[in-house]
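pasting for ref
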Amino acid sequence: MSGNAALDSASKLGDLLAQLPLNQPGQWSDIELTARGLADGLRSKNVEQQTALGQTLLPQTLTSLLKAAINDTADANSTCKPAIFELLRVAANLCMDHDGNRGVLLDAGLPQTVVGLLESYADPIKPAQREALPISIPDLRIVKTSIGFLLNAGVGYDAVKDRLVALEAAMTILKLSTAIYPLGSWQLDSETPVPGASEDVAESWLLRSSLASWAWRAIEEITGDEDNQQPRPVFGPDALPLLVSQLRAFLPPYPEISPAFSSPASRRSLVQTDLDIYEQVCGLIESLCLDWEDVRLSLARGLTFPDGEHGGVECLQELLTFVEKGDYPPCWSSETPGERAAKEKRFDLGKGALVKAIVEVAGEEKNTDTLWDDSDAEKPGGVFVSRMVEWIRTHKSLKEGTRDDLIICATLSLGNICRRDAHSTAIVKPPILLGPDLAALLEPETDIKVKHGVIGLLKHLAQSQGNRAALGQAAVIQRLATSQIWSERADMVEIIQVSAIGVAKHMCNGDIDNTCSLILPPELDSPLQQILGLVNRSDSTAAKSEGTRVLVNAVRSLWTTDPKSLDEDRAKRREDAMEAIVTAPCVSELARLVGRSKRYPTLVNEGVVALSLVSTHPNGGTLVLDSLLNPLPTEVLRSTSQPLSAVSATEGSPVVGARRALDMLIHVLREGSNVPVEVRANACALLGHLGRKGVVAENRSTDLQRMKEGTRELIEALTRESDAPGNAKIVAAAKRALEAWTQ
C-alpha cells in the first residue's frame, strides 16, 4: 500500500467513526474492510509510512472505534467482531518496532481500552479448570490479536509496560491463557463444543496454542526490564491457582488421545507448546517463591486453608504431588530418541525449579509454625513434614529407585523447618525417628546433591544437644566416613565436606560416645584421620579451621568427662581415644589452629584451651611444648581467608600470620584491650601449666627455658595490670603462671 493510500484509509476510518451515530446498515462491514486493507498494507515494513500515520488522528480514531465496537458487542445480534479484529491488526502493525507510535497510542488510551476488552473475556472465567474454555474462532482471533497488540506496544517501551502493570494486564492475560489453553487439554475431547458453531477442531486448537504462546511472550515482556533491574511485581498469590493447575497435564492417569490428533504430525506443535509453557510456568512459580514473601506465606497457609487462600485449589499440595508423581506424557513416545531426550531434560529442569520453590517455602521463617502441625497423631509434624519424611523413608534405598529429586527436596525442606530445637528433636526422636533413614543414604555412590541435602539436614539436627545420642546410635559419624565425603575424590565439593565436618563437630560436643566413634579405631581410615587428612591437603582456611575444631570438641569431651560416670568398657574406650589424640600430628593441628587464627581470637582461644587440656595428659606436656616452638607450615603463614563459622568479622583485623604458635600467644599477651580477657587469661594458664615441674620431660629443659624467656616479661607486666575492666582475671592468671614456674 502506498503512503497516500494508507493516509486515505486512515482518513476514511475517521469519516466512518463520525458516521457511527447514524447507525447505518453495514457500517461495521465498511469499517472492517477499510481496517483490513490498512492492516494488510502495514504488514510491509515502512517506517516513514508508520510515522506519517502516527502523526494523524488514526490513534485516536482506533481507540474510539474500538470502544464503540466493544459497547456494540453487548447486543446479541452484533456484527462488529470482525471489525474489532481488523482494528486490532491495524494497531498492532502500527506500533511494530516503532516507539513513537507506541507513545501516541498510549496517549490515545488504546492499550487501556484493549486491556478492558480482554477483561470482558476474562471476568466470567472460573480458574483452574482442566477443560478448555468454550469460545468461538472469531473470539479467539480477537483475544489473540489483543495480546499481540499489547506485546508489540510494550516491547522495549517502559511507559507502556508500566501502564500495563498498573492495569494488572499480566494477570488478565494469564487468566485467559490458562482457560483457553490449559496444558494438555487438546487430548481430552475431539472438539470443544460451542453452541451454534461447528468450527474446525484443528484450526481452533492451532489458534488456542498460538494465543497461549503469545500470552507468555507478553507476560515475559511486561515483567522484564531492559536495564536488568528488579523484575516488575505483576503477580502475587492470586496467580498461584492458575499456574499450579497447568501442571495437571503431566500427572497420570493420562487421557486417551482423540482421533483428531492420533498422528504425531497432527499434534507436534501442540506438544511443543505444552512443553514451552510448562517451562515458563515452573520458572515463574520458582521466581515468585524466591522473590515474594507473600507468595511463600500464601502457599503455606493454603496447605491448611485452601478454600480461603486459593479458591479451593490446594496449591502447595499439588506442587508436592507433581514433584512426586509428574512424569513424561505418553505422547512423547512417538518422538525420535534425540527429541525425547531433549524434552525429558527440559521437563526435569522444570521439576527442579519447583523443588527449589518448595524448599524456599519451607525456608520462610514465618512459615515454620504453619507447616509444622502436631494436631494429627497419625501424621507427626503435620501434612507437609510427614510427606517429606515419607519421601526419605520410601526412597532411602538408592538401589531400588532413582528419586534423588524427592530426597533432595525433603532433606532441604526439613533442614529449613528444623531450626528450632523442639522441631529438630521431634524429627530424631520417636515416632518419626529419622536418624537411621538419613544414615542409610550416606553411601559412597550417593549423588553429591543428595549428600548435600542429607548432610545439611544432619548438621541442623546435630546442633540440638538432645539429638546427639540418637544420631550416634544411628552411626552417623561412621556412615559419613564410609560415604567417602572426606576423601580426595570429593574435594571439588568442599562446601559439603565442611558441612559434614560440622556434623561431626556438633555430635562430639559434650558426647563421649560420639567422640570415641570419631577417633576409634585410630587407624588411617578413622573418621578423625579422614578429617585431618582433608585439613592437611586443603588450601581453604574454612576446611582447616572447621576440621581442627572437631579435634577441639573431641578433646573437650574426652578430658571433661568424669571416668567414674562410665562403665568399664566406655572408660576403656575413653582412655584409648585420649591416647590416640595425644600424638604429634593431632597436637600440631591444634597449634596450627592457634597460629593461623590471628584475626579470630575465639579460634585462638579454642586452640589454647584444647592444648591446655592435652598438656594435662602424662605424655601431653612435651608434645604441646614442641607444637608451640616448632615453625608453622608455610600455608599457615599465608592464611588470611575467613573460616566458615568462626566469629564475627569485627573481632580483629587482617594481620600477618605468626611463625610459631608461641608467637601467637605472645601477640595475645601483648595486645591488651584488642584481645578478649578470657583469651589472654587462658594463654597465661597454658604457659603456666607447661612450666610446672614434671609436665614437660626433664630432657627438654632447654626448650622449656626458651618458652619462659620469651614470655616472662609479658606475663610479669600483666601482673601489674589492674585498672581496666576484667583485668583482675588476667592479673590472677599471670600470677598463677609465675607461681607455677617457681614450684
